[in-house]
Every structure is written in structure tokens, then in C-alpha cells.
Amino acid sequence: MKQQTLLAISALMFSSSVLANGGFEPNKKECVNVGKEITRVSTEMDVAKSGIQKSWLKRQLSALETKRTSCSTKGFQANSTELAKL
């Protein structure tokens, strides 16, 4: 019974952490794409006129920053050569 309870609790903790991160698993390609997406969203936010659109873009940018932090925590960071391709 204790094993089942511990297994259920650990499965719940794992699934909630994955859901909190949107199911994002850092790898080299995904992390480069996060950098590209941050650039795109930042540019779009600069030209957005609607307050609702700016608010939505801010939330999107915040989620992307969280992904970028996850990338750097896992050791995946875009180097200057990859950023130059943007």
C-alpha cells in the first residue's frame, strides 16, 4: 500500500512539473527555436497597438523566458553563431 501511494505521489509531482512547463523538454534544436521565438515576439510586441494584444504577448514572452531558463539549466544555450542565423 505504501509503495502504491508513493508511486502515485511521485507520478503526480512529475506530471504537474511537466504540465507547468507545457511539456517542454529542452534539447539543442528546441532551445535555438526558443531564442528565435523570443526575438519574433519581442518585435511583435514593439509594434502592437492593442493593450489586449500587448498583454497576451507579454504572457507569451514570459513563458518563452521560462523555457530559455530551462534550456540554460539543462546546458543548452544558443551560441553566437546560431543567433547570427536569426
TrEMBL record:
For the keyword Signal, the answer is yes
Q: Keywords for this entry?
A: Signal
Q: Which residues form the signal peptide?
A: 1-20
Organism annotation: Alteromonas gracilis
- The protein here is known as DUF3718 domain-containing protein
| Top-rank lineage group of the source organism | Bacteria
